[in-house]
Specification:
Layout lengths: L10 H10 L1 E2 L9 H8 L4 E4 L7 H14 L4 E4 L20 H7 L2 H17 L4 E2 L24 H16 L4 E7 L20 H17 L4 E4 L17 H8 L13 E3 L6 H4 L4 H11 L4 E2 L7 H16 L5 H21 L10 H10 L1 E4 L12 E5 L16 H7 L4 E5 L6 H14 L5 E5 L6 H13 L4 E4 L11 E4 L5 H12 L7
Parallel strand pairs: 1-8, 2-3, 3-4, 4-5, 5-6, 6-7, 10-11, 10-12, 12-13, 13-14
Antiparallel strand pairs: 9-14
Helix pairs in contact: 1-11, 1-12, 4-13, 5-6, 6-7, 10-11, 13-17, 15-16
Length: 516
Amino acid sequence: MSILVPSVPDSDQLHRDALTVLQPGFEGTAPPEWVRRHLAAGLGSVALFGRNVTDPAQLAALTAALRRENPDVLVAIDEEGGDVTRLEAGSGSSWPGNLALGAIDDPALTRDVARELGRALAECGVNYNWAPSADVNSNPANPVIGVRSFGADPELCARHTAAWVEGLQSVGVAACAKHFPGHGDTAVDSHHGLPVVDVDEDLLRSRDLVPFRAAVAAGAKAVMSAHIMIPALDPVHPATLSRAVLSGLLRARSVDGGLGYDGLVVTDGIEMGAIADTYGIAEGTVLALAAGADAICVGGGLADEETVLRLRDAIVEAVRAGRIPEQRLADAAGRVRALGSWARISAQGAGPEPDLSIGLRAARRALRVTAGSEPFTPVTDRPYVASFSPVANIAVGDETPWGVAGMLAARFPGTRAESIGPRDAVPERLDALVARVLAGAEGRSLVLVVRDTHRHPWMAAALRLLLAARPDGLVVEMGVPQAAPAGALHVATHGAARVCGLAAVEVLTGQPTARS
């Protein structure tokens, strides 16, 4: 009599598949020895952040070194353009972000911007971009999406999401539509906590899913899950860990109510607070893979070999314990390898060097200029620039410069600039702050640079008092614009990319940017 013994996964292949589905980051501007070793052992992806980039030549050398260990490695980066840039973290982006493109509402231009951004990535050997954000920014109080969204209208977001995906992938860089099934109606940043989107499924389908359907139809090579709880879909698990969301809603055929997506599904950063503080990164990784995710993003905060080994071993143990079916892990690893192969073959299609001028041209078109009660007098000499700086969310980071103070100082030596944060404008300090700014700006043009004034009462209060005393003040809003305040001029840039600042300075000074 024969005895049936459950099959035991091959240990070498199991460990290799477990490494393949991880997308880790690392410290430094060259690959550490442990990254090289794990690439040779099966690691399928590497994630790059601003800390890994100094200039295009350095980045190209880094990616070449990675490919010497694994020619099909997916080299991922979070390069949305606009406020979120890793390629130009030290200077600000050469391309306006999603809200600016949505404000223009020219899908052909969006496609062109994404194509040129893709060429810049491909030129440096980056073949996989965690962008675009396909979220519908339906909640004005959203602390983490905002200008990263094309806007609040689902159809507008859909046509620009599709155009962005098409433009990026036309030069051989894989696009990743995020954050499924939609992070736009949240008031909590999932880097810090677990947002709950308490809407019914009909609203979700008619609003949040519309851009993701467009991304799928446009052939997006990857979709990133959101760390958000949607009780109408799954009252127990957040989307990243939910079979109902990933294996159901995203994967299911359209006739069964799903999006019919068969590409790579990657999680948002597994060490983000929404997962790490509720499940832990190892358990979160296991649950995400079991739910239908194919790849685990990690490394924004935990960028070391110990984290990679911990997650690899957790996956291996979960397969051996039957928590993740062996075939589920094999399928996930197969999708990662298939995308790596596509990226290697497509790398020859990037074409000429990127046309950087298109970014400034687009930023100019995105400007919304509103005149007030005072006649506009262009800045001609030594302005006083007060920049109101809220605490940056982790996705944007605080290392990327923003605003117009440096640009005005380059044109007008003697420019005075001050950066003002929320602690400078608490009620007990507000009068002193206003008096200080007014004294410093006496005899000078006063430029007030703000970012999401509607979300920051301290900023709105300071702006109101300063404009009451100086109605000729010039306001530059670099976040999500609301109603223009009283004043001589209000310039809404729809984002804080470097090119958005340059376009605003052209308006403030009446002078074009040199060599534009």
